[in-house]
Amino acid sequence: MNNPFAPLPEPPYYAVIFASRRRGPDRGYGEMAERLSDLASGQPGFLGMETARDSDGFGITVSYWRDREAIHAWRDNALHLMAQRLGKTRWYDHYTLRICKVETARKGAEQE
Amino acid sequence: MNNPFAPLPEPPYYAVIFASRRRGPDRGYGEMAERLSDLASGQPGFLGMETARDSDGFGITVSYWRDREAIHAWRDNALHLMAQRLGKTRWYDHYTLRICKVETARKGAEQE
Asked: Out of A91, A107, A112, whose CB is closest to B90?
């Protein structure tokens, strides 16, 4: 199993919180999500990405970035890719997008 | 189905991003998560909460707060509740916690 946790660099840096509810069938979503993730990984200033989706289609994806400039460059490239591929396919019935400055960060693991 | 999206107030406000990987069986986790969620809802400065968990146990919970003072008060109460209930139960094998200032926020819905 791949490690689902993003690296935890020293703040400050930026987080993009994307919450979405998927429409029913996949309609190429999995492939598109993978391509977007690959695109992000090659983007300057990309620090990591975490994603979780419930069985009922609600999901949260958080990507981490060095600064706002990196987010803007990534957004332009992502929109370009999606515009090429999207056609009339629709994946979400609702989504929210928040851009945040990470101020503190820590990790933990419980001990038996 | 309940609305899984948190309200989207005008920034600035704060987000707590909690990513975690669950250990195998439930061991009272569901009940605890529900109690923590109830506790947060009654807390001054609480704006909303979103959560998604994969079938393989990796989850992201984001709670939204008016300011850092509200987060600190909530943390103290949550730790108190968990200390009372936790006993020797362990729910996570790893987690990360980030506190962020939300700078911009927007929503969208695709049109057919």
From this structure: A112
